[in-house]
Fold this sequence. Notes:
The chain is mainly α. The protein has helices at 26-54, 61-89, 97-130, 135-138, 141-166, 184-189, 196-228, 234-263, 269-294, 296-331; strands spanning 14-17, 94-96, 176-177. Helix 2 runs antiparallel to helix 3 (97-130) and helix 9 crosses helix 10.
Amino acid sequence: MGDRGTTNHSEMTDFILVGFRVHPELHILLFLLFLLIYTMILIGNVGMMVIIMTDPRLNTPMYFFLGNLSFIDLFYSSVIAPKAMINFWSESKSISFAGCVTQFFLFALFIVTEGFLLAVMAYDHFIAICNPLLYSIQMSARVCVQLVAGSYFCGCISSVLQTSMTFTLSFCASRTIDHFYCDDRPLQKISCSHLYIHKLVSFFLCSIIILPTIIVVIVSYMYIVSTVLKIPSTEGQKKAFSTCSSHLGVVSVLYGAVFFMYLTPDTFPELSKVASLCYTLLTPMVNPLIYSLRNKDVKEALRKSLEKRYFNSVFTVMKSKVLGIITTWGSN
Length: 332
């Protein structure tokens, strides 16, 4: 790679992902932990998408958004987890420059899209509870598709800007990224470029992404709480709050982890990695659990799906046994 004092991004061929600074003996344990979490992510989110697509009772805007949330969780965790698990066994722990750019771009795309989608879901709850008579008009299939497409569009624009801005920096200090994936703050640390403009633009991007989405969520729930408290029956209030509690749980977990990571001082890089782990892997793992455990419709659809599979498998076994007996009798 030549002299590190003069190496820039155009000459960079690869980076090294340090990962977690632990004893080598613990790498197996971390690998198994990552494998378990990623397996649960795959099962939970794929299962959620299958249930939503196959059960006609879940053909509503809320579950359309939830299906997209599961899709996003599945893919942005898949951008991080496989490479991190490979590096637990790798001596070099390297990632190519193109691979780092791709990982950075895709992760930024999906995480920003999720932020906007959670705001859309809060708006959906607001319309359902505060304007139920107009719900079918205001949340038509066309509007739902446009809202989801808009979330992906905002995620894409933000990701293009963040990626192009980050990877036009010069990386002459080192090629060692003190993290388990390619993220903005660790990449800034190994850059020898002047970072004032970069940090200013990054702060501006984060502000126009995080503030509007949080404001939409907060304002929506202020109206929701005000409306729910006016419902005369306790049962009606419980049902309304139960509808929103799952979404609030997901929003709290995601934004709590993001704020914790970015408010963690640079002097504690391992703590920052743990916070990153919370929203890169733990959030996609718990989201399906939160919605399946707190949502009566999802639990009922899951129960019927399992019963159908069980009876189909029993019927198949019985059918094969009967056919075997008939064949035996015929040969005799």
